[in-house]
Structures are given as structure tokens and as C-alpha cells.
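User: Here's a protein and a ligand (manganese (II) ion). What would the complex look like?
Assistant: Let me lay out the input and then the predicted complex.
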Amino acid sequence: MQFSTKTTALANTPSSCLILGVYLNGHLPEATAEVDIASGKAISKVIKTGDMSGKAMEAMLLHNVDGIKAKRILLLGCGKKSDLTLKRFTQILRLAVTQLDRYSIEDAVLGLSSLPVEKATIERKAIQVAKIFTHAEYRYKETISKVKPAQKIKRLALTCTSSERAQAKKGLDTGSAIGIGMNTARNLGNLPANICTPTYLGEQAQNLAKKHKQLKTKVLSEAQMKRLGMNSLLSVGNGSDQPSVLIVMEYQGGSPNSKPNVIVGKGITFDTGGISLKPGLGMDEMKFDMCGAASVLGTMHALCELKPKINVVAIIASAENMPSGRATKPGDVVTSMSGQTIEVLNTDAEGRLVLCDALTYAKRFNPKTVIDIATLTGACVATFGNVVSGLLSNDDELADKLYQCGLDSLDPAWRLPLWDEYQKLLDSNFADIANIGGPRAGTITAGCFLARFTKDYKWAHLDIAGTAWDQGKQKGATGRPVPLLMEYLLNA
Ligand code: BES
Ligand code: MN
Ligand code: ZN
């Protein structure tokens, strides 16, 4: 999908379709009023018929409007002017996508970018535009014979003033990179576990590095991890025929001596629960248990597209959690890379077991901050549903920043307390720590477990169990939290 900026008058800009907004009760935003005048009041006349009131999410297509270079005008209802938040603006963009698709329109000019949106700069609006249109391009293809037809829209021009142009262009580049990264994350998430194995994730990371010279990738084998003492990570893959891997990707866009931010993804390519086997109903969704890893790869892809002058290290801890004669059993004790021993009371609490060794490994990069991303607990889904990701942190400043980035990028996260009172729930009679904290406060005790391994740096944990994929008819990976991670990394 190609994005551009235009500073010419809307009426004089040729295209297949000019997209304009109408406020509630037929009030016209400036850009729409300008076209209305150029067209001899064609838009006002339509509004007078009562066919278009400007209610949010209304749409109407006009043809052959005199005085206008575009072949069509798509009018979109924007609701009350004072209610136009970034969320609403984004919904309207999604409506534009469906309408353009419905009429098989291949190129369009967007006259919505001048709408005043609450707290949003032209750059922010442009990010949303490029992100939404790129996101809409995605089709899952790998394992179906009849793929949905491709999106028709190929070129979108955003109108702005010449003083806004640089910011608009920057926003379009950012949004487009985020959209591409989200689609990478979605596709990896959607792939079935018989294709998307730990080895496959490693290959995808290698492929990305082959295409982008800012990126270095290495994939550590089980033997290499064994030498590092990553027995906790390795214990998760014991029951599987698929070898576990640790993927390390280094994006260097900044100076070599500026400290990196590190992101760490949970990459369980299938989670049966292991010997603590999960119930059968809905177990297919545990192919999405690598969505943390997918969001990390998606974020690296987005960085490679955008090429910002920053340093980011990505670590993916990947294994398949299966029951077998070789599988880890409840009560087994393993020694993590940190030296702390762990009693594995429940083999279904495997995410934290792979993450803890990856988090210990992260120390060697002398990180500015470390953020891990994981589909870690069912309790997080019970708390937040699919709206908000769980956020836990050992640093208030980092937590506040991530919270704000979540709001700004419309990819929100909400903090839970990581207080000492919860730590005792992880006590074990047979090891330094148990891998579960009982039935209560599941998201917090999972965070408490990880906190034992992250004392040496500023760290935050994002539990994306509820936000990483949609269920039901819309079943599929969402690409979250790539927008949140990009917002953070670009502004950290
Ligand atoms: N991958 C699951 C968490 C999960 C469950 C994500 C459902 C999304 C939907 C994780 O590995 C897990 O099984 N967690 C257990 C932990 C428990 C045994 C302490 C859970 O949440 O039930
Ligand atoms: Mn599990
Ligand atoms: Zn899991």
C-alpha cells in the first residue's frame, strides 16, 4: 500500500475517490465546505434531502460531482465535532476502508486529516491512517485454498498544509511500518503449530536479518542453552519432539555505545499444558501461545522498515509444551540460569519457566529497560477481557510511560500491583521458588515469579493473554501489542 501527501486544493486533486467528513446535523468541516463551494453546493444539497445526517459511521457515495476532479466523493459521518476523539477518528478510517473496498476503488484522496481530533497532531492522525489501511491489507493465506480477494485500494493520498507536510509524512511512514509489523505478528500467530514450530520462528528471524542489514540474528540451540545453564527453559520442551530455541535479534540504528531497550517474547508454539494437561475444549487456541514472540518479531520487522536511530535487542524463548515419557512432571525441580531452583508444581505454568532464563540472559546487553510480552495467564483474560493488556513493573517511571504509550497508540495496558505481599504465595518447601502461586491473583503471582529474575534492571511485563487474539467468528491474531511497543521504543 502506497501513501503520499498532497497540498493541492481538494477539488482540484484528481483521484478515483475523494473522502470527506460530515458532522452531525449536516455541519461541514472546513475541508468539506471548501469542496462544497467548488461543487456549487452539491454536498449541501444532498444533506438537505435528509439522506445524510452526519451521524457517526454513516456513509454515502456521490458520483460525477461538477467542479471536482475526483470521480466520486465518499461522505462519512463523523458525529458531533466536539466528540471526535482519536478512537472515533480511527473507527471512521475503518469505515472508509470497508466502503472503498465495497466499490473496488483503487486510489483515493483522504480529506479527513484536517479534522480537529482531540489531542491529536497531524503526525498522530497520519500514523492511524497508514496503520489502519495497512492492517486491512492482511489476508491469511498459508493453509487455505480459497483466499479472500486482495484489498483493492493501492494508493492513498493524505491532504495537508505545506507546513504540516513533514510531520504528516513522518506519521505515514511510522503508521505503515507499524501496520506491516502487526501483519507479520498476526500471520505468525495464525499459523498452525504444525508449521509454526520453534525452529520455524528461528528461521523467520534469520530471514528478516537477511533482508535488513541493521539486524543481526542468532538462534541458540538446545546444546548452547544447556551450556548457559538454561535448565528452566529447556525443561518446558522436554516432552516435545520439537527442539527448543532462544532467538536473539539485535537492531542497531543508533550509536554502538548507546544502551538498548530489550524486548523479550514468550514463544510457546503450542501449549497443551504438558503433564498438567489442559482440558480439550478450545485447546486449538493454544497455537496462539507464541503471540508474545510474534509481537516481538513484528516489532523488529516494523523497526527494519522505519529504520529509526535507536538500538533494540529482541529475545524470544521458544518451546513446545507437550506431555510424554520425557516430559517434566509436577514436583520436578529445575535450576534456572540465575542459579535459583524452581519447583515445577504445574507444568501448565510454562511461560514463566521459559521467560525467566531469557530475562537472565537479557542482562548481558546492559539494557536501558527490559519489557517482556507474554500470553501468560488465563486470569488476565478474566480480569481485562480482550480490551486491555496487563502491565506489571518494578519501576514506576517505566510503568507510567507504558501506560501513556498504550493510550496514545490505542493499544492500552493497565497496571496491576507487583507488591511484596504476593511474593510469599510462591514459597516452596523443596526449591527456592514454586512456579505457581495458587488459584488467586494469578496474573500478579506470575508477575511476581518473573520479578525474581529481573532485579538488576528496569523491567515491565505485558500479559497479552486477552489481547493477542480474537475468538469466535473473528478468530485470529490481532497484532497487539506492536503499536504499544513501537510507541514506547520510538519515544523512549
Ligand atoms: N498460555 C497459558 C495462559 C492462557 C490461558 C492464555 C488461556 C490465554 C488463554 C499459560 O501457559 C497457562 O496455562 N497459564 C496457567 C497458569 C496456571 C497453571 C498457574 C493459567 O492461566 O491457567
Ligand atoms: Mn500453560
Ligand atoms: Zn502458555
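Summary: The chain has a mean pLDDT of 98.
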